[in-house]
Amino acid sequence: MMAQHRRRIERQLxxxxxxxxxxxxxxxxxxxxxxxxxxxxxxxxxxxxxxxxAMRPGFLDAAEIxxxxxxxxxxxxxxxxxxxxxHCGAALYDRFAMSxxxxxxxxxxxxxx
Length: 113
Ligand SMILES: [Zn+2]
Fold this sequence. Notes:
The chain has four helices and no strands. The protein has 113 residues and is an all-alpha fold.
């Protein structure tokens, strides 16, 4: 959870709002056309089928192959920018995070030199 969302929920809870209402207000605004999300959902489904080894050769069309390549590239970029917490494995807020928002564990950073 991003720090700004965490602070907002903490303020709402401190103001007496219940957790369910605070979380319901967290829904991310969509900034792209609905078709983009449907296409992304299709690619996630195809990737799951591929990971299970249940995909026949020649099953994918060229657009799906391009989409899966873009999905893989985006996942690698996300992993570089949000490395896993050494304590719980959750993705960190960024690669410079000093603590984990999930388990509150402190992240040790090696000093250069
Ligand atoms: Zn953690």
